[in-house]
Amino acid sequence: MKTTFYFLLAVLLIWSCEEKKQIDLAAEAEALMATSRDWAQSQSNEEYLSYWTEDAQLCQSGQPMLRGHEAIMAMLESTKDIPGFKVMWEPYEAHISENGDMGYLLEKSSFTVNDSLGNPMTQYFRTVTIWKKQDDGKWKCVVDHVAADPELTSIK
After folding, report:
1. What does CATH list as the number for 23-148?
2. Is the pTM here over 0.70, yes or no?
3. Average pLDDT, the chain
4. CA distances from 1 to 7, 13, 40, 138, 156 (A)
């Protein structure tokens, strides 16, 4: 009995003395913001899609929730038929979980389309994206929520 007690005590002492992995939350926040900025520069629908997890959810103002790559790709493909369509965004605040495996960004975004005369019209949005760090260390978006904000006039 005493042997078991001392063994468990030794295990607890070793475990409590183990150096816990330190996460540099500021560096992770910067990396997540950089990932979002890279995402904004995507050149193809396939590249855009690669930043979402397979089961990602996309919620846009006035639109039904899109779930998963297939639904999101269908939406992305539909944008090629919209004259002047352009999307842009800029993250301005990042938050990372203590263990560094989840994070969220606050972002400003804009959608531009041409009006009936061919003139560009831009609408601005507040966006919250929730991210999960993958096994390979890359961040991928699991939830993308976009809401119109009539007070915004720029994403910068």
Report:
1. 3.10.450.50
2. yes
3. 90
4. 10, 18, 62, 48, 67
